[in-house]
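Folding problem:
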Amino acid sequence: MGPKICDLYAGVGGISLGACRAGFHLSAAVEWDEITLSTHAKNFPKSKHLQADVSKLTGRELLRQAGLSRGELAGLVGGPPCQGFSVMGKRRPDDARNNLFIEFFRIVSEEKPKFFLAENVPGILDPRFEKMRRTALRHITDRYVVLPPMLMKASDFGAPTTRTRVFFFGYLPNAFKKELTEDDFNPSLVPSVFVREALTGLPTCISPDWQEEEDGYRKLRTFSQTEFLHKAANAIPRNVGNQKMIEMLLEKDIVTGCLGTVHRPDVIRRFNRLKHGEQDKIGKMVRLNPKGFCPTIRAGTTKEHGHFQSLRPVHYSQPRVITPREGARLQTFPDWFEFHGTRYHSFRQIGNSVPPLLAEKILSVIRKALR
C-alpha cells in the first residue's frame, strides 16, 4: 500500500485516479454532490466516501472517517469549485463558492500533511482574486515550501485535450528526499496524442436511438495499440475500478457510455458541412480536428442553475456530437472507468474533472521525491 492521501472536492475522480496510478493509496474522498460521489465510489470501492460540505468538515473528522492517525496522512489533494473563477462565469470576488478554496488550506493547516496539491482554473490567478488567494495561503505555516502557482496544459503532457489548469503545491522539506521546483514538473519529450488516435477503436456509427444506459454498452473495434491506447485499457491500480466493468472490457472488449444524441435533419446537414476546427454558427459546437487537440470539454450547470448541458464537440467524421465514452477518452479516462448512465451527468462529471493523465504526471514527481 502506497502513501495515504485524501481527495477533497473529489468529483468523479480525475485526481484520485492519477494519484493511485502514481503509487498513492486513496484513503478517503470528499464530495458534496451525491450522484457524483456515488460514481466515484463505484470506481474506488476500497476507499472511504464522505458526502460532506468541506466548510463544515474538520481535519480531525476527516482523519477519523478515513481511518487514519495523526501524522499518517501523506497528502491532501483536490479541486475546489472553480465556477466563481471561470472566465465563462461572472467572476465575482464575493461568490460564496470561492471560499471553498480557502477551506482546502484550512484543513491543510489543521492536519499538516507532508504535501498538498490543489487544482483550479487559470482564472483564479486574476488580480481580483488576489486577496482570496492570500487569505487561503495564510493558513499554511512557515514549515511548508510553497511553489508559485503552476499553469499546466494537458496536451503538453500527452493528453489529446488543451484543457489548462493551475496547480498549487507545497510540501514539508523534511518529508522529501530533495528540493522540488517548478522545473521538476515541466514536461519533456512527451509525444503529442491527437484526437484520431485517442478515439481509435471506439464505435463510430452511433445510433440516435441509443438512449438508455444499456444501449451504450458497445464492442470495441480491433486496433493497433499505441502507448496511449494501451493505457486506456490497462494500468489498473490495486483496489481501483468496478470489477464488472473491468471484466467486460478485458474479457469481452465491451465499453460503456456510447450513447446517441438525437439531432434534427437541419442540424445534421450543418454538421456535415462543418470543416475540422470550424464552429457551427448557430449551435456554436466546434468540429474536432482528427490531427489536432480537443478543446476543453465543459461541464454544464447543476439543477440550481437550470440543468443545462454544456456544448459538446462534433465528431471529426460523423455529423453528431461526441458520446460520453469519447469524451472520457479525450479527457484521458480509461475505458474501464464508469460514469453515470445518462449523457447529462456523464458529461458533467467529465467536464468537471482533471485529466487523470495530467494528475498522474504531477503526482508521480511528488511520489518519487517523497521519503
Notes: The chain has two domains: 4-190+354-369, 195-351. The chain has twelve helices and ten strands.
